[in-house]
Amino acid sequence: MAHRVKRWRCGFQALRWAAASLLRAEKALRPLSAAAELPRLAAALEQHVRGQAASQAA
Q1: d(Cα 38, Cα 46) in Å, to the nearest integer?
Q2: Is the pLDDT of residue 20 over 70?
Q3: Could you tell me which residues come within 8 angstroms of residue 21 by beta carbon, excluding any fewer than 6 positions away?
Q4: Angstrom distance (rounded) from CA 50 to CA 5
Q5: What is the pLDDT of residue 48?
Q6: pLDDT in tens, 37-49
Q7: Torsion (CA) 2, 11, 21, 4 in degrees, nearest 10
Q8: Taking the complete model, does pTM exceed 0.70, yes or no?
Q9: C-alpha 2, offset from chain centre
Q10: In whole angstroms, how far apart are CA 35 and each of 25, 26, 38, 40, 42?
């Protein structure tokens, strides 16, 4: 969409376009069946990333 813009006036317009795109895409998304497991997944991913960072630092 941005390639059609000839002149950017401010960053707020880009934010509005991004928000409009996300709202449009939200209609096509389906709900997660395991939404209750997301905090557990986030914790596991964070632990994994920390482990990789520690192994690279060593």
Answers
A1: 12
A2: yes
A3: 1
A4: 41
A5: 93
A6: 899 999 999 999 9
A7: -20
A8: no
A9: 19
A10: 19, 16, 6, 10, 12
What is the model's pLDDT at position 25?
92
Spatial neighbors of 8 by CB under 8 A, at least 6 apart, are 14
Q: What is the DSSP letter of 34?
A: T
What does the block give as tokens for 58?
A: 């060593």
User: Would you state the pLDDT for residue 3?
Assistant: 66
Q: Give the total residue count for the chain.
A: 58
Q: Give the integer Cα–Cα distance in Å for 22 and 40.
A: 25
